[in-house]
Amino acid sequence: MIRFIVKRLAAGFVLLLVISLLIFVGCEMLPGDVAQIMLGQSASPENVAALRAELGLDRPAPVRYLAWLWGTFHGDWGVSMTSRQPVSVMLSERLSNTLTLAGLTTLVSVPLALLIGMVLAVHKGTRLDRVGTIVIVGLCATPEFLVATLGVLVFSIHLRWLPAISYVTPGTGVLTQIKSMLLPLATMTIIVTAQLARMTRAVVGNILTQPYVETARLKGAGPVRVIMVHALRNAVGPLINIIAMNVAYLISGVVIVETIFAFPGLARLMADSVQARDLPVVQACAMIFSASYIGLIMVADIVAKLFDSRKEPGAPS
Amino acid sequence: MTLLHIQNLNLSADSGKPILRDVSLTLENGQILALIGASGSGKTTLALTALGHMRPGVRHVSGQVLFRGQDLLRMSRRALARLRGRKLAYIAQSAAVSFNPRIRLDRQVTESSRIHHTMSPDAAHARAREVYRTLDLPTGEAFYNRFPHEVSGGQLQRFMIAMGLHEMPEILVCDEPTSALDATTQVEVLKALDTGIHASGTAAILVGHDIAQVVQVATHILVMRNGEVVERGTVEKILHHPEHPYTRRLLEMHRGFDAESGTMAETVAAASATAVSPSDRTDRAPLLEVRDLAVCYGTGGFAVKALSGASLTLNGGEMMAVVGESGSGKSTMARAIAGLVQPSQGEVLVNGRPMERDVLKRPLPMRRAVQITFQSADTSLNRHHTVGRILGQVLTFFGERSKERRAERIRDLLEQVHLPADYADRKPSQMSGGEKQRVNLARSLAARPDVLICDEITSALDNIVAASVLDLIAELKRELNIGILFISHDLSAVAAMSDKIMVLRNGEVVEQGPTAQVLGAPRHPYTRLLRSSVAALRLGWLEEASALHRSLRDELGA
């Protein structure tokens, strides 16, 4: 087991290195020049060249890559080209916002989705299942911006219960912070819960048709026992991977929701930085997103392995 | 006292097609009732109603299933769950898929006692060990606590029996408990089941497809066909005074092979008389010659030897049976001869000419010469194509360009396998299992092969259907004068009609020669083990066979 974990960690590290190269090459290929954009169209070629030299952009690409990689491993992400702030400072605030939102969403939606998915799987083919599935598939197919906009329309404009913009200012009370996060949280919970519940229903529903479930029922096991004792441990492997993918999505892929609510998260920071050609920030965000994907999937694989009785053939059981 | 009383039970599929028609039966204390019939006869569906269980797609139309006077089909789920596992227990057909792969075996065996709170954990522990011993399972806590994938198929099926017997149920329902096992293991598991049932004194319903096996355990027999009961009675009555023609046919299937002496009385003599005498062709090379063929799977230190040093010769009009249990290397040999796996050594000669090892490197005439028919017609035939298209493709591949001549050959091929000419327009889904296997054979014959390899082609078929396919093979061998390599794990099926036999075990040829000689006086204990595994249609066979098995297993050194 420990060998497996070490192997996975090493593989994850190598993968991250490869990704860093891809990110760097990708940023190199972006059209446009930071110095040119910062100084505007009318800047003289001398001024542009001087700024390029100041920003270190005149060095050859491999040197810049290695310098960046070296810095990254030391926590030095460079300096933002537009705000002239250290990237790490810009990131830390955004990262904590994103992690709070993603964490809260996960805490609410994962148990909720598992419960809904399992209830539907147990009642497969009944009216409850049909209605539930229609609602879930409908929500899966609804774009996030629609859910978010409807939320704003109802709760902010008509009822005036919640702020339409969830700009979190440091220093305000916890209650205000939670209140301002409630709409984005609800939007993302709805989307993620629907996705997860649909997959849970499929995975658990499939397990419930297995002969060993029939055996358990014919031993007199009730529906709760069948699910908790027999089905769930076989569902952990596939489900944990789906959950990991969804959490990774919550960290990196919620740019639309962040934009609608003006939520200061990582995804929006990256989108803004791409527009401004602020490459150090783009690269840092991309690395964090990649690392979160790799890390979460690695954790999922390890958990799935822990639940698999077939680990290491020949090992004493 | 009557435990179970099924009254005029009618069940149908969701489509309305009847599955059981007006079936009635009673089960008294201590009776062991066997349900016999072809697949699709409704025997498993009937047996499951004794647990109040209907699989998805089955509907209750009318009738009652009374257990101690209570109708199981009208009972609440909760009340039914209280009976299941405790009073009514179940032994599934395939233990391999019927155990939860992630839970230790001992936990699963004793689960009923935790569900129903019938025993303290200590008592359940002790009871399970008592049953394990009765069923002759290896001893040791570490063994009992293994996961399902860590024990052999025969052991797993015995754990399944232990699970059924754990609560000392009043009725034990066994759904073909041995049919997924190798022939040699079947004897041992059947014996364990017999011992277990008698030790716990439970009544039982035993679903089976092999009448010779079930009579060893049962006290009463119910013969079913198309959802109806055709005959019922005590084992003695059915064995000695069968009334219905269908029952007689089922019994006939077994009378042909005399396992005790290993000969097929008249059939072997008849077969060798019609076979082309080898002396006719001494001047010519044999049709198929295999020299020292070996196959390894994997490379380097991980290589597993699947077949080592098999040699054989086969002439036109001859049939060689290749027998052995799963994993013995018989399919590997077939695939190596056909060029589907690469042998690590040895050569294959057809009509004296060496064949390329890889089928893709064989020129067209070489490919044509060796054809293989696989076990499952369902996976071999494209279900979206008509029979005419399936056969036509083979003809086109081997160079028949004229549409008229192709149509003519398709008619001839269908006639050869005894199917009406209009089957050319049918798709596989519109045919029965036996018919599909005939088309599968016709597909191989379309190439006009010299050597036909049949890989377990009757294993998925019911006895009666399998027998008719075997008759067809014998006929093709005579009429087309081709060489047939017939691979099977069922000795009784092939002994009747093969001229030669090869016995494989763990990838090695343990014995080989003319069938009558090898089976008449087997030299190797493994051949004797195989021969003694063929159930004989008489009472008391199981006792003798399992005693013989024990001594032969000792001789083989496990």
Question: Can you walk me through this structure?
Answer:
The complex is a heterodimer of chains A (317) and B (558). Chain A has 317 residues and is mainly alpha-helical. Chain A has two domains: 16-73, no CATH class; 87-306, MetI-like (MetI-like fold), CATH 1.10.3720. Chain A has 13 helices and no strands. Chain A has helices spanning 2-29, 34-39, 45-55, 61-73, 87-122, 127-141, 144-158, 174-208, 211-218, 223-252, 255-260, 266-275, 279-306. In chain A, helix 7 crosses helix 8 (174-208). Chain A starts with a helix and ends in an 11-residue tail after the last helix. Chain B folds into two domains: 2-255, Rossmann fold, CATH 3.40.50; 265-382 and 448-533, 3-Layer(aba) Sandwich (Rossmann fold). Chain B is built from 24 helices and 20 strands. Mean pLDDT of chain B is 88; it is low at 262-281. At the A-B interface, helix 9 and helix 10 of A face helix 2 and helix 5 of B.
Key terms:
heterodimer; A: 317 residues; mainly alpha; MetI-like fold; 13 helices; disordered C terminus; B: 558 residues; alpha/beta; Rossmann fold; 2 domains; six-stranded mixed sheet; 24 helices; 40% helix; 23% strand; globular
What gap, in angstroms, lies between the N and C termini of chain B? 44 Å
Shape of chain B: globular
Distance between the termini of chain A: 13 Å
Q: Structural class of the helix and strand makeup of chain B?
A: alpha/beta
Strand content of chain B: 15-25%
Radius of gyration of chain B: 25 Å
The major pleated sheet of chain A works out as: none
Number of helices of chain A: 13
Quick one: CATH class of the largest domain in chain A? Mainly Alpha
Largest interface by residue count? A-B, 23 and 33 residues
Average pLDDT level of chain B: 88
CATH topology of the largest domain in chain A: MetI-like fold
Radius of gyration of chain A: 24 Å
The CATH superfamily of the largest domain in chain B is known as P-loop containing nucleotide triphosphate hydrolases
